[in-house]
């Protein structure tokens, strides 16, 4: 493995103590599939960003997000990209997971696995947020959304999508709508029902996982990303409806936090 | 907070497009006006016709240089063909981040374009008023012009490090050493006299 | 210009309409077709010049209106595939390989089986590694680092698609738990990008996995417990993979109010959002994903999933038929390869 | 127009404030920003702390893992600190591997740990030559408004005080280690080093706890680390304008006072979260 000279690395090999611990029987009590974990959201939390938001799901998932309005875009690499840049701005997403964010072993920052995972999350975030933005108003520029995952207790991408939309709205870029994310999953048991906003353990055991993002005012879906043991289109459709309904239920919380931030900013003037 | 103020978030439906005209911070879709910002809803009635609905934020809007606007910029480098500048202000609004622009030799002044020399017009560090003429193409960034009497250098330091005073449309003088330096000087308007 | 191009394409499709009904065809038939298809040269040239598709508004409108009428520029209906050519065993030094041409899109996939150690969390399973090479030959867009973003997107999509537990029987790749297993390196090479990359690659991957032959090995243990791996002497003594559950990807591109399958580059330029679904031969959807910078309304997602299931199932049947045909020809099959 | 003056001539703008012995954010030259600490909020870490100096926000999470020690220090564990400046904390940082400033900060924290003996590395030994603890201390800046070093050192200290390690025993028969999560022990914190940074203006003026703007304009910075026995653990002065011995002595005196305040704050918060 190549040595990372830009970080202090410590010993070559180390293992999480949980590897040697007696297996924990972490069987959770069955939960109401309709229940949503309470969500705490606050916008305008960072000083150095144009816009920012913090989203926490009860149970522990903590996501911090910063957004910057239109900045000068770097030189486009190809002629086609340059032509596209003249028509509309670009959204760039960055996703970082704190090394201590997950249970078990520490995630090694900069390792190939970690970089790949972060890049996939960033790509998924961009797909979910791009439809909310009026990018054609910002030709030749880029907008930046940067996410830091502080603690992973499940439904991370969904929380990041909600936080990202809040941060962008807080930064004052023109948008079509907010985006609300929600995750759901279904256990391996064939009779298992879909549960909303699964925790980390539920996600790990799940046979099927799905994350959806909704633009509530336009009733459009900006992200669907699901995988697992196969299902019929009807199965997936049912899950999608279930997830979108949850997004509608989460929307007022996000909206309220954004209104509060807007009021606070106004008072600070 | 004024209780009569109405706040909204992006995507919120404000009214039907028949009741009002869409102002800044809004967009129209399917016959309705929606907010595109998190901000405060304002309705101004026009004497003739429909009121204008707009959404305003208190912080400065995210402005971008656009064709025709006057910008304040700082010269970073010059060569025989053009001057490279950083755009700092749009009108009197400071930009949150720097955008780069180019003033080509032929856009420095309106007359005798063939006799213009870049180094006799700008020096690195000068503060220049210019107007955006194009967003540029895939190769170049914003193109600017100073070919108007009101455009050109507004603040410059002499070799001795002193702020110079304009003495004609093409010369500035150092108050300490009294040496004269060439510049494309702007006829300064009162609102830009700041320091 | 746009009008002329459009009529040209209409012509070519009246020629090709007959084979549109057939979803896929094997090499034997395709060779013949290539001989009689006079217009193919024109199309190819067009493909070369249009690597970066920039369409004017009227051109886009023309495509969108056509889709609305269920009549696409090349004469297909919304749910019709272009005819695809599939050939397996095209690269001799791989464990399995396949080349797929779908319209202008041209994909080569090689599978190489190498011995490795199982992952800690799955000690009794082998695993698959994907690598996508967006060669600059495929389109000038890929020069420099241009292809990287697309390459990683394709790679991560395939990891997701194959993450489903029973897509490939990974347990059969285990040689002895915790110590040795087969690692299948699936290398995807994009030769020409002519739209609908994901579907074409998934066809090629499935065909290449079908074609894969892994040598049989035996684990010998001596008295002290140290193990030795012995390769079978007979080169024909090998394991085949069961690809029955390997899914195929169907991309449904939203154009206007409708969606199409197997979009061409021009159609992709008219589409803001697509839905990728991976479908098993039994018609189960193992993954779904929205791509593109637009959004979709829930109703159309439901419809797209239905179409995906229907088209995907038919695609599986057609592919399996070709694979079986090629298999039955055995070594007597005349290889077309790259010069065909 | 003040805004415009600030953009065009930021240093001149700042000097005008300094002449009046105050700073644009309303502080006096020797005044610290409001300092808060929140301990143990990240439950996936074995110890964590979030520290705020005004806007500057830094979080430190400690993860403990098991490893074999090196041959030449068979009875010593590892402490591996890393400072990260993600693109989220300020537009001045790009995403990707750590830049120069992050690397310098990591090295500074590593030096503080090494010089001050916060923890004896021998305390991290479980079985001599066989098994030791590795403490990965990841310090991430969430909001970058100056004085990263002080905040990082503070967050590290507070997070280490929060660490609870499960008890590990080595089974004599099998030779395998057994971890018991039910029985947890805190780390032995031997010293409480606290960093105090100063920005130097025009070679003579010292201002304490500089924010990002002040750091950019200053001609130099100096960071002094002291512990509860008033001993000097480290002085970090990365170039910039020179400093007289008397001025440095002044810095040390002020750092000692600051150490007392910070220690008091940590103890108060630790006590408040202790289960009754």
TrEMBL record, chain A:
Exoribonuclease phosphorolytic domain segment(s): 36-173
One of the record's GO molecular function terms: RNA binding
One Pfam family cited in the UniProt record for this chain: RNase_PH
GO cellular component, one term: nucleolus
Keywords associated with the record: Cytoplasm, Exosome, Nucleus, RNA-binding, rRNA processing
Recorded superkingdom: Eukaryota
Major site of localization recorded for this protein: cytoplasm
GO biological process assignments: nuclear mRNA surveillance; poly(A)-dependent snoRNA 3'-end processing; rRNA catabolic process; rRNA processing; U4 snRNA 3'-end processing
Location(s), subcellular: Cytoplasm; Nucleus
Protein family membership: Belongs to the RNase PH family.
PANTHER family with a match to the protein in the record: EXOSOME COMPLEX COMPONENT (PTHR11953), EXOSOME COMPLEX COMPONENT MTR3 (PTHR11953:SF2)
Protein name from the UniProt record: Exosome component 6
Source species: Amazona collaria (yellow-billed parrot)
From TrEMBL, chain B:
Residues covered by the Exosome complex component N-terminal domain: 7-44
Pfam family of the protein (one): ECR1_N
Main location as per UniProt: cytoplasm
GO cellular component: cytoplasm; nuclear exosome (RNase complex); nucleolus
One term of GO molecular function: RNA binding
Domain of life: Eukaryota
Assembly information from the UniProt record: Component of the RNA exosome core complex (Exo-9), composed of EXOSC1, EXOSC2, EXOSC3, EXOSC4, EXOSC5, EXOSC6, EXOSC7, EXOSC8 and EXOSC9; within the complex interacts with EXOSC6. The catalytically inactive RNA exosome core complex (Exo-9) associates with the catalytic subunit EXOSC10/RRP6. Exo-9 may associate with DIS3 to form the nucleolar exosome complex, or DIS3L to form the cytoplasmic exosome complex. Exo-9 is formed by a hexameric base ring consisting of the heterodimers EXOSC4-EXOSC9, EXOSC5-EXOSC8 and EXOSC6-EXOSC7, and a cap ring consisting of EXOSC1, EXOSC2 and EXOSC3.
Name recorded for this polypeptide: Exosome complex component CSL4
Organism: Amazona collaria
TrEMBL record, chain C:
Domain of life of the native organism: Eukaryota
Gene Ontology terms: cellular component: cytoplasmic exosome (RNase complex); nuclear exosome (RNase complex); nucleolus
Compartments, record wording: Cytoplasm; Nucleus, Nucleolus
Keyword terms, alphabetized: Acetylation, Cytoplasm, Exosome, Nucleus, RNA-binding, rRNA processing
The keyword Acetylation is assigned to this record: yes
Molecular function as annotated in GO: mRNA 3'-UTR AU-rich region binding
SUPFAM superfamilies in alphabetical order: Ribonuclease PH domain 2-like (SSF55666), Ribosomal protein S5 domain 2-like (SSF54211)
GO biological process: exonucleolytic trimming to generate mature 3'-end of 5.8S rRNA from tricistronic rRNA transcript (SSU-rRNA, 5.8S rRNA, LSU-rRNA); nuclear mRNA surveillance; nuclear polyadenylation-dependent rRNA catabolic process; rRNA catabolic process; TRAMP-dependent tRNA surveillance pathway; U1 snRNA 3'-end processing; U4 snRNA 3'-end processing; U5 snRNA 3'-end processing
Pfam families, sorted: RNase_PH, RNase_PH_C
Domain Exoribonuclease phosphorolytic: 81-215, 246-310
Gene3D superfamilies: GHMP Kinase, N-terminal domain
CDD domains associated with the record: RNase_PH_RRP42
PANTHER family: EXOSOME COMPLEX COMPONENT RRP42, EXOSOME COMPLEX EXONUCLEASE RIBOSOMAL RNA PROCESSING PROTEIN
Family classification: Belongs to the RNase PH family.
Listed name of the protein: Exosome component 7
Source species of the chain: Amazona collaria
Automatic annotation (TrEMBL), chain D:
Keywords: Acetylation, Cytoplasm, Exosome, Nucleus, RNA-binding, rRNA processing
Entry similarity comment: Belongs to the RNase PH family.
CDD domains linked to this entry: RNase_PH_RRP43 (cd11369)
Signal peptide residue numbers: none
Protein's name in the database: Exosome complex component RRP43
GO cellular component: cytoplasmic exosome (RNase complex); nuclear exosome (RNase complex); nucleolus
Molecular function per GO: mRNA 3'-UTR AU-rich region binding
Localization of this protein: Cytoplasm; Nucleus, Nucleolus
Pfam families from the UniProt entry: RNase_PH, RNase_PH_C
Superkingdom classification of source: Eukaryota
Organism: Amazona collaria (yellow-billed parrot)
Annotated Exoribonuclease phosphorolytic domain residues: 31-166, 193-256
Main location: cytoplasm
GO biological process: exonucleolytic trimming to generate mature 3'-end of 5.8S rRNA from tricistronic rRNA transcript (SSU-rRNA, 5.8S rRNA, LSU-rRNA); nuclear mRNA surveillance; nuclear polyadenylation-dependent rRNA catabolic process; rRNA catabolic process; TRAMP-dependent tRNA surveillance pathway; U1 snRNA 3'-end processing; U4 snRNA 3'-end processing; U5 snRNA 3'-end processing
């Amino acid at each position: 493995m190549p040595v990372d000279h830009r970080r202090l690395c410590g010993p070559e090999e180390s293992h999480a103590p949980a590897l040697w611990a007696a297996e924990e029987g972490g069987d959770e009590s069955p939960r109401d599939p309709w229940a949503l974990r309470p969500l705490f959201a606050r916008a305008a939390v960072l000083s150095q960003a144009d816009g920012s938001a913090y989203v926490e799901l009860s149970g522990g998932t903590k996501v911090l997000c910063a957004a910057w309005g239109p900045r000068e875009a770097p030189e486009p690499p190809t002629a086609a990209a340059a032509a596209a840049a003249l028509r509309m701005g670009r959204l760039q997403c960055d996703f970082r997971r704190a090394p201590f964010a997950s249970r078990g072993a520490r995630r090694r920052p900069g390792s190939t696995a970690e970089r790949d995972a972060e890049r996939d999350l960033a790509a998924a975030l961009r797909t979910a947020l791009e439809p909310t933005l009026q990018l054609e108003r910002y030709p030749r520029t880029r907008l930046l959304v940067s996410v830091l995952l502080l603690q992973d207790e499940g439904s991370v991408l969904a929380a990041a999508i909600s936080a990202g939309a809040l941060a962008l709205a807080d930064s004052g870029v023109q948008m079509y709508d907010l985006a609300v994310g929600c995750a759901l999953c279904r256990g391996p048991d064939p009779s298992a029902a879909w549960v909303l906003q699964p925790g980390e353990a539920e996600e790990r055991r799940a046979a099927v996982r799905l994350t959806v993002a909704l633009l509530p005012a336009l009733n459009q879906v900006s992200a669907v990303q699901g995988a697992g043991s196969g299902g019929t289109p009807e199965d997936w459709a049912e899950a999608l409806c279930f997830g979108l309904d949850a997004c509608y239920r989460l929307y007022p919380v996000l909206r309220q936090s954004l209104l509060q931030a807007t009021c606070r900013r106004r008072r600070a003037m | 907070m004024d209780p009569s103020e109405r706040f909204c978030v992006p995507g919120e439906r404000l009214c039907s497009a028949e009741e009002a005209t869409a102002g800044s911070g809004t967009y129209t879709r399917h016959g309705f006006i929606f907010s595109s910002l998190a901000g405060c809803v304002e309705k101004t009635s026009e004497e003739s016709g429909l009121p204008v609905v707009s959404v305003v934020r208190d912080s400065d809007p995210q402005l971008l240089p656009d064709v025709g606007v006057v910008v304040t910029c700082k010269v970073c480098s010059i060569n025989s063909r053009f001057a490279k500048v950083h755009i700092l202000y749009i009108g009197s609004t400071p930009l949150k981040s720097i955008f780069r622009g180019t003033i080509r030799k032929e856009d420095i002044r309106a007359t005798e374009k063939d006799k213009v020399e870049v180094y006799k017009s700008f020096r690195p560090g000068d503060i220049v008023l210019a107007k955006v003429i194009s967003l540029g193409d895939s190769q170049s960034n914003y193109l600017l012009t100073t070919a108007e009497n009101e455009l050109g250098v507004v603040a410059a330091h002499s070799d001795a490090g002193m702020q110079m005073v304009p003495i004609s449309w093409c010369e500035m003088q150092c108050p300490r050493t009294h040496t004269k330096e060439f510049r494309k000087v702007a006829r300064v308007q009162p609102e830009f006299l700041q320091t | 210009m746009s009008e002329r191009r459009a009529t040209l394409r209409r012509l070519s499709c009246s020629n090709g309409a007959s084979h549109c009904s057939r979803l896929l065809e094997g090499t034997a038939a395709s060779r013949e077709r290539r001989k009689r298809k006079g217009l193919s040269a024109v199309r190819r040239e067009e493909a070369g010049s249009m690597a970066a598709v920039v369409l004017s508004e009227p051109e886009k409108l023309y495509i969108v209106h056509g889709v609305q009428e269920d009549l696409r520029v090349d004469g297909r209906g919304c749910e019709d595939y272009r005819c695809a050519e599939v050939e397996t065993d095209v690269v001799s030094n791989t464990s399995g390989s396949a080349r797929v041409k779908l319209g202008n899109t041209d994909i080569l996939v090689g599978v190489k089986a190498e011995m490795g150690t199982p992952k800690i969390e799955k000690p009794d399973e082998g695993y698959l590694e994907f690598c996508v090479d967006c060669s600059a030959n495929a389109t000038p867009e890929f020069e420099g680092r241009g292809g990287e973003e697309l390459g990683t997107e394709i790679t991560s999509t395939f990891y997701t698609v194959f993450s489903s537990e029973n897509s490939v029987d990974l347990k059969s790749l285990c040689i002895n738990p915790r110590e040795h297993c087969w690692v299948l390196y699936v290398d995807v090479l994009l030769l020409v990008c002519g739209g609908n990359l994901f579907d074409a690659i998934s066809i090629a991957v499935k065909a290449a996995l079908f074609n894969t032959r892994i040598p049989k090995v035996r684990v010998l243990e001596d008295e002290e417990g140290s193990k030795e791996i012995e390769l079978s002497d007979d080169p024909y003594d090998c394991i085949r993979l069961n690809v029955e559950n390997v899914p195929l990807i169907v991309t449904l591109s939203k154009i206007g109010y409708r969606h199409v399958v197997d979009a061409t580059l021009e159609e992709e330029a008219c589409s803001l959002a697509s839905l990728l679904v991976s479908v098993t031969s039994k018609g189960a959807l193992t993954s779904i994903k929205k791509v593109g910078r637009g959004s979709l309304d829930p109703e159309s997602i439901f419809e797209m999933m239905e179409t995906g299931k229907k088209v995907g199932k038919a695609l599986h049947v057609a592919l399996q038929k070709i694979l079986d045909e090629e298999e039955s020809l055995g070594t007597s099959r005349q290889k077309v390869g790259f010069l065909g | 127009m003040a805004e415009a003056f600030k953009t065009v001539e930021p240093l001149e703008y700042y000097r005008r404030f300094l002449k009046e012995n105050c700073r644009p954010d309303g502080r006096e030259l020797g005044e610290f920003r409001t300092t808060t600490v929140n301990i143990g909020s990240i439950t996936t870490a074995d110890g964590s702390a979030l520290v705020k100096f005004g806007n500057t926000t830094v979080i430190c999470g400690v993860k403990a893992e098991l490893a074999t020690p090196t041959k030449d220090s068979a009875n010593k564990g590892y402490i591996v600190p890393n400072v990260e400046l993600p693109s989220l904390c300020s537009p001045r940082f790009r995403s990707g591997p750590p830049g120069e400033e992050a690397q310098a900060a990591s090295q500074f924290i590593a030096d503080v740990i090494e010089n001050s003996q916060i923890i004896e590395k021998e305390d991290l030994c479980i079985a001599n030559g066989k098994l030791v603890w590795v403490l990965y201390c990841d310090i991430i800046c969430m909001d970058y408004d100056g004085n990263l070093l002080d905040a990082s050192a503070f967050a590290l200290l507070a997070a280490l005080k929060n660490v609870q390690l499960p008890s590990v025993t080595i089974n004599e028969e099998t030779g395998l280690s057994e971890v018991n999560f039910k029985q947890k022990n805190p780390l032995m914190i031997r010293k409480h080093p606290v960093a105090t940074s100063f920005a130097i203006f025009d070679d003579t003026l010292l201002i304490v706890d500089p924010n990002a703007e002040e750091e950019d304009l200053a001609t130099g910075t100096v960071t002094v680390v002291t512990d509860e026995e008033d001993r000097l653990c480290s002085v970090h002065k990365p170039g910039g304008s020179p400093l007289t011995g008397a001025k440095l002595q002044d810095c040390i005196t002020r750092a000692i006072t600051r150490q007392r305040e910070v220690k008091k704050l940590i103890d108060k918060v630790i006590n408040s979260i202790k289960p009754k």
